[in-house]
Amino acid sequence: MKYASQFEKELDGLFLKRTLWLRTVLKNPSRDKSPEFHKKKLDNSITKLQGIVLNALTDKMAKKEFRRHAQLPQQRWWAKGHSRENRKNDFKEWFSNYPTPNKGYVYVFWGRNKKCLYVGRTNETGNGRPTAHFNEYWFMRTAYIDIY
Predict the structure, then answer these.
(1) pTM of the full predicted structure?
(2) In which band, very low, low, confident or very high, does the pLDDT at 42 lie, cut at 50, 70 and 90?
């Protein structure tokens, strides 16, 4: 769910809770007691709203900073082969032709549906770090690897 829709849903729920007493009095005046709106409920809702906004801003700023620092264009290796060994050999062959930067780089393992599986970075030499993760349990779900 997008941050804006999360925020709207939480805010609408808070408004409904806050005005419930008025709506119940107007609809059914004989009702004895409507649920109370406590400060604790309000504080919990405000905390949720703050968390949603914080996550949205953090996500937006992180993407902006990443784009600012990453040397584009990125390189993308598409996972081919049915075994780990075939994929590893294919990646090594592809990577030997890839012009590696003189400093370290960032690599991202992506699964299906654009789900991030792992993010890593190399040191100054950058030798062999992505291939070290080919033995991980999640590696066979990898659809492609981006290198920045």
Answers:
(1) 0.58
(2) confident
Which residues, at least 6 apart from 80, have a Cβ–Cβ distance to it below 8 Å?
86, 87, 90
Encode 37-64: b = buried (16+ Cβ within 10 Å), e = exposed.
eeeeeeeebeebeeebeeeeeeeeeeee
Lateral strand order in the sheet of 142-147: 75-78, 142-147, 106-111, 116-121
Tokens of 49: 């709203």
Q: Per residue in 124-136, pLDDT tens?
A: 666 567 888 888 8
Q: Identify the H or E element spanning 143.
A: strand 142-147
The H or E element spanning position 122 is: none
CA distances from 11 to 3, 38, 50, 110 (A): 12, 16, 11, 34
Residue 32's pLDDT is 58
Q: How far is CA 67 from CA 11, 14, 64, 73, 106, in A?
A: 32, 36, 5, 10, 12
Q: How far apart are CA 144 and CA 2, in angstroms?
A: 25
